[in-house]
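Priority: medium. Attachment 1 of 2:
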């Protein structure tokens, strides 16, 4: 009896649908290519989905992410219909970006930072979609993930989502300035700083009371330091030096960022406006996590 219940439960879990249908109004929104390209830069799309070290084309598939759960390969995001997003609809794209669900209804692994994009507006999605339609097709498949059992069982991610998935806290705080709130939206949402600068638990989920406190277990054996205000200020950072570092990769001591942060700057934050960099620095150096 117990075995029958277990099998039935397993079948139900595999068949359990996830995600919701995006609004039909997406199809009639006109996307802004320039704004979409800017948002893609801010969101780290190029840094993650391009394997420049191996001579790969932009957005044709990323460098391997070696984790404790296996090796994961960011997919091809070009307009190729077979190996990229050329056969997708804008609704497929919206579901993937905001919900982490593939066109086939399967959950994406959380190495994809979709939880941070959950509050992108319909217009954000339309703009991103318009920008991605300009990417030249690259007919090259991304390698298959190399996850060990049981992490290779993608249906198990439905349980992970039920236990840990939450939307980013990007809502504005009324008593804070527009600049601070813009920085919050960037840092907690699009730029997903907490994806690297927050410790993970044994299941690979971010630990809620360790937001921005640093992470010594990034893919590939890399680490990310604490970006809590007190720690940054103790190390000599202020808003101007932080905004400058996000633009150039140069720290107050004259050193340069390396590893993952160098990629974040080179392919992402270096292209952001002075206003957005100042907003991000303002929020990072003046946030009380108890109020957001």
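Attachment 2 of 2:
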């Amino acid at each position: 009896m117990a075995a029958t219940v277990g099998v039935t439960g397993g079948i139900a879990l595999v068949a359990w649908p996830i995600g919701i249908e995006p609004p039909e109004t997406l199809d009639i929104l006109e996307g802004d290519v320039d704004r979409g390209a800017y948002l893609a830069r801010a969101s780290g799309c190029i840094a993650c989905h391009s394997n420049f070290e191996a001579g790969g084309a932009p957005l044709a598939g990323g460098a391997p992410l070696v984790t404790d759960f296996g090796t994961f390969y960011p997919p091809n995001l070009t307009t190729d219909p077979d190996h990229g997003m050329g056969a997708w609809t804008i609704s497929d794209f919206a579901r993937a970006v905001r919900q982490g669900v593939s066109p086939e209804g399967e959950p994406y692994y959380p190495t994809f930072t979709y939880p941070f994009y959950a509050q992108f507006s319909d217009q954000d999605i339309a703009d991103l979609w318009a920008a991605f339609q300009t990417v030249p097709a690259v007919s090259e498949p991304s390698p298959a993930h190399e996850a060990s059992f049981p992490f290779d069982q993608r249906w198990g991610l439905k349980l992970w989502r039920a236990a840990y998935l939450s939307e980013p806290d990007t809502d504005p705080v009324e008593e804070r300035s527009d600049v601070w709130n813009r920085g919050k939206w960037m840092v907690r949402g699009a730029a997903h700083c907490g994806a690297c600068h927050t410790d993970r638990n044994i299941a690979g989920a971010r630990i809620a009371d360790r937001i921005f406190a640093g992470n010594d277990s990034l893919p590939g054996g890399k680490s990310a330091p604490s970006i809590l205000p007190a720690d940054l200020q103790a190390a000599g950072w202020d808003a101007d030096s932080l905004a400058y570092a996000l633009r150039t990769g140069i720290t107050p001591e004259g050193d340069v960022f390396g590893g993952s942060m160098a990629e974040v700057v080179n392919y992402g934050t270096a292209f952001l406006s002075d206003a957005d960099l100042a907003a991000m620095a303002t929020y990072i150096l003046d946030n009380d996590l108890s109020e957001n």
